[in-house]
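Journal club prep — side note

Before the paper discussion, L.F. wants everyone to see what a predicted structure for a comparable chain looks like in C-alpha cell form. Sequence:
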Amino acid sequence: AMEDQLAAVRAGRLRPDAMFWRRLEEAAALALAAAPVPVVANASDDAPESGAEGGRKTVLLVGLDDGLVASARSSLAALGIAVAESDAPAMILGALERHQPAAVVASAATTTLSGFDMVRLVRGSARWGHLRLLLVVDADDAHGRAAAFAAGADDVLGRPWIAAEALARLRLGALGVGP
C-alpha cells in the first residue's frame, strides 16, 4: 500500500500531505529497525546538539559515500563549519532534530528513501520546510538535476565534490561564514 502511494507520488498522480510523509517515515523506520544504520557525527554523543558545535554552524550530510564525506568534511571544517553525518535518509526528521543543521547535503541515490523523497519529506515539515537542501547527483545527469529541483531542492551538486562550487552553492553567508 505505501509502496503504491509512493509510486503514485513519484509519477505525479498523488499530491502528498504531511500525514503521508509521516506514515512514510514510520514505515521506513520499521524497515530499518531490522538493520539499524549508525548515525555518526563529529560531536560527542554527550554534547547537546544545538545546530552549532562550539558556536559553529552545522551542515548535515545524508547518504553520501565515504569519498564525498571526506571531501565535504575537509572543505567545510577549514571554514569552521561543523559536519554531522547520517546514513539513514528515511530517518531525516530525527537527524534534523538531533543536529539542528543550517543546511543539508544529501545523495539523490540512496537505498532506503531516495534523496528526492527525502527533500519532499523535509519540505512537508512545518519545522524544517525552510531548511537549505542540496542534492548530489552525477555531474552529467540532467534528469537527476531536474528531478532534484522538482522535488524542492534549493540547489544541486555534481559528483565529484568540487569544494569551491559546493561552498558557493551552500551560500556560506547564510551559514555565518565569509563576508
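L.F.'s comment for the group: The two ends are 50 Å apart (CA to CA). Keep this in mind when we get to the figures.
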